[in-house]
Amino acid sequence: MEETNCQSGLRSNIINKEVFEREAELCRKLHKENNGKCCWGSCDSCGVIPCLYKLYKGEVIDEKDKVNAPKERFLKSE
């Protein structure tokens, strides 16, 4: 049996742009309304944005500095 890793079967457009943008907008809204938190926890340690990015773009973001860049871009934008 082949070992599974974060690169296994990686491809873009698992989710479409509309779903990606809708879910990122939900994160942004909750981030603003709840001072950086939602029912899942703190936005600082959340993996939703990187996971959405992986499913849409087909790119794994694993290094801490690279994880924070999309979070800041999506959570801070208007």
- Helix vs. strand class: mainly alpha
- What is the radius of gyration? 13 Å
Number of helices: 3
Count of extended strands: 2
List low-pLDDT spans: none
The gross shape turns out to be: globular
Strand content: 5-15%
Describe the structure.
- With 78 residues, the protein is mainly alpha-helical.
- It has one domain (17-76).
- Helix content is 51%, strand content 5%.
- It is built from three helices and two strands.
- β1 (37-38) and β2 (41-42) form a beta hairpin.
- It starts with 16 loop residues before the first helix and ends with a helix.
Topology:
Elements lengths: L16 H17 L3 E2 L2 E2 L5 H10 L6 H13 L2
Antiparallel strand pairs: 1-2
Features:
single chain, 78 residues, mainly alpha, two-stranded antiparallel sheet
Question: Quick summary of this structure?
Answer:
This protein has 78 residues and is mainly α. The protein contains three helices and two strands, in the order αββαα. The mean pLDDT is 83.
